[in-house]
Design brief:
Layout: E1 5-10, E2 23-28, E3 34-36, E4 44-50, E5 56-62, E6 69-73, E7 80-83, E8 91-98, E9 101-108, E10 111-117, E11 122-123, H1 129-133, E12 139-146, E13 152-159, E14 169-175, H2 189-195, E15 200-205, H3 214-218, H4 227-241, E16 245-255, H5 257-268, E17 274-278, H6 284-287, H7 294-301, H8 308-314, H9 316-319, E18 328-333, H10 341-353, E19 358-363, H11 373-391, H12 395-401
Parallel strand pairs: 14-15, 14-16, 16-17, 17-18, 18-19
Antiparallel strand pairs: 1-2, 2-3, 4-5, 5-6, 6-7, 8-9, 9-10, 10-11, 12-13, 13-15
Helix pairs in contact: 4-5
Length: 402
């Protein structure tokens, strides 16, 4: 605040780009002397902001299904978690430092985003009160499983309203995108809407996700569609083994890397009765030069003419599409330059040629994230209908109808 120092986020080795967490650093304007303040913190951090007296820097930390505001002393010392506290388990999406303290936009598992005072957690707004009181919400908790190589995999687990112990439920694995993100204790309208249909909904923080440190988030470097799918399958295996999920009524879906993981999962085995693949990729030879990830392709996979085997290996959802038996709905924005439409078109055509039930929905004028409210509603309704048709219906009847 006195203009003598600048706080900034310093990235790790360029090779690992998004895979590793930034560090918080401070540099002197006069001497260029630099200090790293989070050397021992192995977590993703965001949005640094000075305290008014310059004694601390506030930021948010992605920490295993939570995202609190924390204070980092500029003179060194312990990083202090401020809000939400560990007992509250929420996600602070942003914050502002003012003369009277910190105001934050924060969400909780059954509470959409409101403005809170970070010092004591008092809600300063209550815009969503009528909405919250109008429905019975799914309960939200955590679910941990062990992957094939012994790695702990954490998930969020939503149990539908009226949930009964001892009953095996139809279950949807709704997978987050990124992959550099995490499902956490925040309000998730998509998962809540699916749970409201009577499904158990699980959100798996597979390897590549944030919140668990460098080794966890970088484990899938150059090896896409392997460890992520082991983790998702391990979670489903445990839900079935624990008697929570009906193995004959499983679904999967997601958007962006969640859709990519959906393609990987249905090409890996046939456990899922229905899938919804949104804004996804499948044929990475075709993706090279047509999307925004050219640096990541070359950095992690090499150039296609030098290492074609890497591209063929991760393109197995398309190149080995004959493994897929899961009825799959593909959805994408017409103008998506992040993960272009052509991937969904190719996967749709492959399943059509293989006589696997499929549909392709293209949203006119939309990019990677849908923005038109009627399209957002349409997407959700189509997902619900697709899952109902192939998870909840009699399989023989579905076969006759197609």
């Amino acid at each position: 605040p006195d203009g003598r120092e600048i706080a900034y986020l310093q990235g790790g080795p360029p090779k690992y780009a998004w895979h590793v967490a930034d560090h918080l650093a401070v540099i002197s304007v006069d001497s260029n002397e630099k200090r790293i303040l989070t050397e021992d913190l192995d977590r993703q951090i965001y949005s640094p902001a000075w305290s008014l007296d310059g004694e601390s820097i506030y930021l948010t930390i992605a920490d295993d299904r939570t995202r609190p505001i924390a204070a980092v002393p500029t003179g060194g010392g312990e990083i202090i978690r401020l809000y939400p506290t560990r007992s509250q388990s929420g996600v602070a999406s942003s914050f502002v430092v003012g003369a009277n303290g910190i105001a934050t936009l924060t969400s909780f598992a059954q509470q959409p985003t409101e403005v809170y005072r970070a010092s004591d957690g008092v809600a300063l707004t209550n815009h969503n009160a009528d909405f919250v009181e109008a429905f019975d919400w799914a309960s939200v908790g955590t679910h941990d499983a062990t992957s094939a190589d012994g790695t702990r995999v954490g998930s969020m687990l939503l149990k539908p309203p009226g949930y009964r112990d001892g009953e095996a439920y139809p279950t949807i694995a709704y997978v987050h995108g990124g992959p550099f993100g995490q499902d956490a204790f925040e309000f998730d309208y998509m998962s809540q809407a699916l749970a409201a249909q009577g499904y158990l909904v699980v959100n798996t923080n597979y390897r590549g996700s944030s919140g668990r440190g460098r080794d966890f988030s970088s484990a899938y470097f150059g090896d896409w569609g392997n460890l992520e799918i082991q983790d998702i399958h391990a979670v489903m295996d445990k839900l079935v083994a624990d008697g929570l999920s009906d193995p004959d009524r499983l679904g999967i879906g997601g958007w962006s890397y969640g859709g990519i993981n959906t393609n990987f999962a249905i090409a890996s085995d046939t456990r899922f009765s229905a899938a919804v693949s949104g804004a996804s990729a499948a044929n990475y030879i075709m993706g090279y030069g047509t999307d925004q990830y050219i640096w990541q392709y070359e950095n992690e996979l090499g150039k296609p003419w030098e290492t074609p085997e890497n591209y063929f290996r991760i393109s197995y959802p398309f190149l080995k599409a004959d493994r897929i038996k899961t009825p799959t709905l593909f959805m994408v924005g017409e103008l998506d330059w992040n993960v272009p439409l052509i991937h969904s078109e190719q996967m749709y055509q492959a399943l059509r040629s293989l006589n696997v039930p499929t549909q392709l929905v293209v949203y006119p004028g939309e990019h990677h994230g849908l923005s038109k409210p009627s399209y957002i509603q349409d997407r959700l309704e189509r997902m619900i209908d697709w899952y109902a048709k192939y998870i909840d219906s009699d399989p023989d009847q579905v076969s006759r109808n197609n």
